[in-house]
Design a protein that fits this description.
This protein has 18 helices and 17 strands. Helix 3 runs parallel beside helix 4 and helix 3 packs across helix 13.
């Protein structure tokens, strides 16, 4: 892949026709596949993702599997000649699927799309007992990385968040993940929970660090529109000063045990970063299949975004038909600059100017004024081709992003 990337950049410098430029360059952009599984046992009151509580009849796995294949086949002409570098099962709760369905889905994907040899395949999972029993089967089916939605090790906090598991189940789930042969795994933790102080947040983190996880997602509870928490605000939420103190304490503690903060809310030991998410943040391409899934695809005509119907039944009924592609639009220059910056600046390492040109097709001088102003304001630094935020800029990303609107 690296050799292909360099070769494309070399030819890009030689060819001056814009149409040929786009044709050469887009093939060097990494491509990921996202698979949305929209069902949950129960929807959490803070969740604004496209998720739906499974009814008593269960999940229509075979219907959904057939729809996913129709969805993928419809999109194949948009990605001819490109290889998938990562796959991510998100939700919802993907671990509600049977291991047989997961295995059949992965086999069907490989039969339809070329994939890189060392394919990272992540599945989000919850610590409920029924899912934990399937972890080894998921591993056998081809999942290489499990992301476990623990959120907290406090029964009081888990109850406040509306989670369906308790602290004991969370511990058992991590032990089960470690006993399997996954290449890597992630523990999801939240802070800024109702009635939580710095010491309580640290206790949650210490409980996770006992297991020496290779990857940790550590993010603040946010109150999103169109969620029960937005309409019935939980009591005793930490204020902004307390939230800042929590984050500072948690960053220090995580980095002290070798978990490097490589993104705003992601920490990993060396070499265990989530490649799928890094591709998002580096403004790579991704094909999204499943109810409500979003895609970003670059081709000779530019960068397109589109999505799928949100309701599972509507998605199943329309899969493969023209009406199954909704909200399609081409990104203009302003869109691409802002979206690139919103994503790329989340990474501590920042981005290279070469990377900006490759993924957007735009000249570097489009962002030069914003970078120079950010440097002047002490929010960015530039070393040769690489641009990244300062410590202050990383703490005030919205302020940096405003310079590129």
């Amino acid at each position: 892949m690296a050799r292909h990337y360099v070769r494309c950049l070399f030819f890009w410098q030689l060819i001056t026709t814009p149409e040929k430029l786009a044709m050469i360059a887009y093939e060097a952009i990494p491509l990921s596949l996202y698979i949305h599984i929209p069902w949950c046992v129960r929807k959490c009151p803070y969740c604004d993702f496209n998720s739906h509580q499974a009814d008593s009849s269960g999940i229509p796995e075979q219907e959904y599997l057939a729809a996913l294949f129709k969805d993928l086949e419809q999109l194949l002409p948009r990605i001819w000649g490109r290889r998938v570098s990562t796959i991510f099962f998100g939700g919802g709760t993907p671990s509600l699927l049977s291991a047989e369905t997961v295995s059949n889905l992965l086999s069907g994907i490989r039969a339809r799309v070329p994939c890189v040899p060392a394919l990272e395949i992540t599945m989000e999972a919850n610590p409920g007992s029924l899912e934990v029993e399937k972890f080894q089967h998921f591993c056998d089916a081809g999942i290489t990385r499990l992301s476990l939605g623990v959120q907290s090790f406090s029964d009081q906090s888990l109850q406040a968040l509306g989670r369906v598991h308790d602290a004991e189940q969370a511990h058992r789930a991590i032990e089960s993940v470690k006993a399997c042969q996954f290449n890597s795994y992630n523990i999801d933790l939240m802070f800024g929970l109702p009635a939580q102080d710095v010491s309580a947040a640290q206790l949650d983190l210490k409980a996770a660090l006992i297991y020496q996880p290779p990857h940790l997602s550590l993010y603040q509870l946010t109150i999103e529109a169109n969620t029960p928490f937005k309409h019935t605000l939980p009591e005793n939420l930490p204020d902004n000063d307390l939230l800042a103190d929590m984050q500072d304490a948690l960053v220090i503690e995580a980095e002290a045990v070798g978990l490097e903060r490589y993104e705003v809310s992601a920490y990993a030991v060396n070499g265990r970063q989530c490649r799928h998410n890094v591709n998002y943040w580096e403004f790579g391409d991704y094909l999204g299949i499943g109810a409500g899934a979003h895609s970003k695809i670059t081709d000779q005509t530019g960068v397109s975004r589109f999505s799928r119907p949100r309701l599972p039944r509507q998605y199943i009924a329309t899969a493969g038909a023209n009406e199954s592609i909704v909200n399609e639009r081409k990104l203009d220059q302003k869109d691409m600059v802002l979206e690139f910056m919103i994503n790329a600046l989340r990474l501590k390492q920042g981005f290279t100017m070469q990377q900006f040109s490759l993924t957007t097709g735009l000249a570097n001088d489009v962002i030069s004024d914003g970078i120079n102003q950010a440097i002047k304001n002490g929010l960015m630094v530039k070393n040769r081709d690489r641009v990244k935020t300062t410590d202050r800029g990383f703490g005030f990303l919205s302020e940096v992003q405003l310079l590129f609107t």
